[in-house]
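Researcher: Batch entry, complex prediction.
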Amino acid sequence: MNEFCRFSDAIVLHVKGRISPEDAQRQTNTAVEIARRLQGQPGVVLADEVGMGKTFVALAVAVSVALTDQAKRQVVVMVPPSLKQKWPRDFEVFRERCLPADLRDKVKAGSADSAVGFLKLIDDPPEKKKAILFVTHGAMSRGLTDRWVKLALIQKALKGRHDTEGLKRALDRVMGHLIRSASEHLDGQGLWQKLLDTDPSRWLRILQREGIDPEGDDNPDTDDDPVPQAVIDVLSEMRGTDAETVYKALKQIPIRHSKNMPDRLKEARQVIQEQLVPLWSQCLTWLKQKLSLPLLILDEAHHLKNPETRLASLFQDREAEADAGQLGQGSLSGVFERMLFLTATPFQLGHQELCAVLDRFVGIDWCGSSVVAGGLAAYQEEMGALRLSLDRAQVSAVALDRAWGKLRPADLVADGHLHTSHEDWWAAVQKGGSLTTTVREVVECYRAAECDFRDAEARLKPWVIRHLKPRRLPAPFAGTLRRERHAGQGCGDERGIDLVGEAILPFLLAARASFHAPESRPVFAEGLASSYEAFLDTRNRNLARAGQLTDQDDDGSEVRFDEASSWYLDELQRLLPSGDWRTSASHPKVCWTLERVLSLWRHGEKVVVFCHYISTGRTLRRVISRAMRGEINAMAARKLQCSEEEAGDELERLGKRFFDVDSPLRAALDELVEEIVGPFPTLKAKDRIADLAEIVRRNFRTPAFLVRFFPLGADEIGRSAVLEALNSKDQSGLTLRSLIERFCEFLEEHCEDHDAYLGALSRIQVGSHVAVEARGSYSPEELDDEDAENLMPNVRLVNGHTRSDTRQRLMLAFNTPFYPEVLVASNVLAEGVDLHLNSRHVIHHDLCWNPSILEQRTGRVDRIGAKAERCGQPIQVLLPFISETQDEKMYRVVMDRERWFQVIMGENYRLDLQSTERLAERVPFPESAARSLAFDLAVSPLV
Amino acid sequence: MSLAAALEREAKSAEESAFLLTELALALARLKPETAPGAMPSATVRQRLNDVIAGIKASIPRGDLVQVPHLSQYVERAFSEIAL
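Model: Structure tokens for the complex:
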């Protein structure tokens, strides 16, 4: 039997300073185990919790497979669009840091975000062939759109026909317009006619001679044949009559320019577009027949849960599912010999959905060079047994959930003692003794569930690998908790934010409105708990029955309210304060978040604030900016012992000195930056030092930095003052100097990322206000605020409206020690984003009904190599809620369901008032009970 | 009126008491009595309900609401709504 994958011992995942030895060992063990399992089974799901380095494990497997494969076939990694830049970046880090020099050249990667791009990567000659191919999700479903493919199709339509010279000449004048390729400037120069007369396999040379960049990326190294071999092959086998419609449409294009020209071109363009569909379909058939690849790695594999999604249907279709004896008929079925799926949320899926994901493995090449033990029949038998076992576990879990729902506080008795802590009570129950009837039923259900879960765990274990984050920090801080949660007002007793005075009435009215619509989700109460603006937005849009409130509406349920509810909502709307930022900040939770953010900012800590509502995000950004500005003025006046106005002028003067080339202050800072950069060879290049000095200078001179860290009142403002500022510590005990050193170390490790990070930092606006000249560095939506001139550049907003390049820049810059310092984000930043290197604080201003999303959000700052691991202090997760309102109820329900999510797969509970009311009243499920039931799918440490 | 007295007793503050009593009055005002055989005529029931509402209104100490003008205005509006 051919060896499918031998884990390469040359791969060293421990990169000093990047991750701990324990994490590296776990990653290595996992990669070794995946390689071992893939030898005998069609696929594996790697489902580690977020931030545990699945990417590096997958890359280690990919590289091992590429190195083992004797035919030097390519490994394909399908990645979500949001991560299409991150994966190749991570691969370059992997190549540089984890592979020895002699292997680096053997495994290079290429990326494609279109079908043509993919086809081009697979037909490269052996010396140019990339071992790892990153293909963006959707690339293969979108089909062909490329200009050169259109031209090749036109060539095919003209081929073998008489008297086409005149038509070719006519087409030469309009081809750029016809194929819509931003190459209209080439029209009428004879180039198109030359290409039409030449075989597409020789087009590259012609284009290069004409100085045309076929890839349009200004990089001669990436220049490739414009038409992939697959398309050339398919076109050469196509009958002339198949392109008849294209020919007819081309014939309609006038020989000379006329008023009909635009219409004829449009019609011909449409016909060409239509003909690309069957052409792509034939290309896929070609792929199936000709292509055999060893491994597919698919990121965010939970999207495969629905066999009807386009991504899933590429590998299998429903007919194939029904006919287990035949190979799948999906477009890519039979192309890959093995599959590795990545997801962080396997149990957010229902158990049937998880089985549906595992069913995708049926689409491997069962007749490939590496045989799967037992073949298709054994695999299907195992899937059947797994499905039955998961069914039983799910039935037990649901029975336990029901029995648990009957518990009342009075049942928390064990051996005659009434417990106030449900955890203590559960521990006492385990020891036996006298229990109430309800508790006995719960215990029986629990024991039955334990039994069924262990059986399902054993059957699931070969297919799914999952590691949970350790609850403690790695050495040398091994005793320290990794995370600390602070709920409510954050005092450790889970008491909510109190409502006092006038703030009470809106919440009472929202509660009354919800009471009159018990079968609807209390969206108004939820909106009000977020901010006054979120309520008003919810209300106004509900009245208009249109619009988007959040980046991700939870359930889209329609809210029905009667006359009484409407009366309360009208009253509430009338009552809500509207006006300046202070009014917005008077909202109890907005006020709480504002104070926390300011306190963290004062102590030099970066913080991510997640909120659900777009309007709350805007409000938070506005109030934080305004309050911070006031704080800066007050702090400066205090330190300089003058008026706020004079202090502002002084800060301005001081800031300018950092840009004065003759200023000793600037010289001192530049010298110190050079000293910091000194030990990093790749950064020592003159222009890099200059870039870094400029970045440090830009941040150093801002009023926000000066008032906090610079000795403003000092007698002498020179080198010692700069040193003092550099050595001042944040709340985590880290100095700015150490943070910059760490950043340099990071850049040294990520050489290929220098331009991205330094570019982002150079383009991020700093300073004290959103300057008119810097508005170009913002998305127009971000400045869509009447108060825009008062926004602080170190407080930034990211939501679904943020342009993707701005979003990318903000993510990179936030992950450095520099601006921005506060990121107010919606759930768009909850997945696939690294924000952990310089922040260990996350505020969930709004909760989410889905606990997995909360975990995903926190995972942004809780990742391998996080700031918390460097400073030895826990990640702070703040979950504010308003006492005795819908907000508190939501908190209680979500926290309880978070524990139940470990037990009941894919739970999708109802969000209406009655249901959540019932859930909030339940006795909380103990964490210890949830943990002992949950599947243990970790890889055992290697001996 | 016993229910009103109980609500007053259980409320944590004068403001809460005022709100709860107002809500009780609103709930009573929203009732639509219907005449049924052997029962009191609906007009009589309505009249009794209005008496109770008046009693509730009188029991709300407006002076306690000076510090919370919004609540005070809300109570006023609620009772004017009832009057309509």
